[in-house]
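Appendix B, Record 12. Input sequence as logged:
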Amino acid sequence: MLSRFHCQRKCMRIATICTLASAAFSLIQEKAVADEPLRRLTARGLLVSNTASLTKWSTKKSHHNIGEKGDLFAFSVRLDPGERLTVGVYLYATPLKLRANGLAGGIDGPERPVPVSEIGAKWGHKSQSLHCAGSWVMVDNPSTYGSEETVAIFLPYAVIGLADGPYIFRYRIRVINRVDGSVFDSFFAKYSYSAFVKPGSLVATSSLASKLNDTPFVYLDYEGVKEEEEQGYIP
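Logged structural output:
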């Protein structure tokens, strides 16, 4: 009986060691995946938050070009000769508790991709690979020389399909090869903010990024980018 007991304890120790080793290996793998160079994006993007711009559907309503609120992004992207890319911004959110006084409290669940609203799905704002709300732009380089293009992307708040309430929002930026679907860049921006979701709008409550000279412009760096890549940028 004693021998069997020791055998069980030994097996449990081995299982524990294997579990810890597997967890450590997973962390190493995640670090290896996260610590990547920028392949097509430059070291920084630019965000103009809570701005009014045209949506896909607003130009169909009337000739007055009435804008809707959202976030406007600008990225500089490198293209190889003959390359065809898709540059996109995708929304993720962490729900917050709503206190009795109407203010946001602690975290109320895991972060998840933001579902797309009915109008967002109708006008092509749902990512088929990430299954979340987003906006993207296709850009081509038909020449035999490499090029660098400035890409502007508008993400209207109306595409957000979340229930009303407080959330922490983050942006995921991706650059995809449109020919074979391979992903060149996929990074979260080093920027997040708390906001109350209202029908078709967001009411921001706080931000983890400082703004430039009290303007709505915010520089975006990326999480998980090799340090030498970030040091190569001169603002």
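The mean pLDDT is 79.
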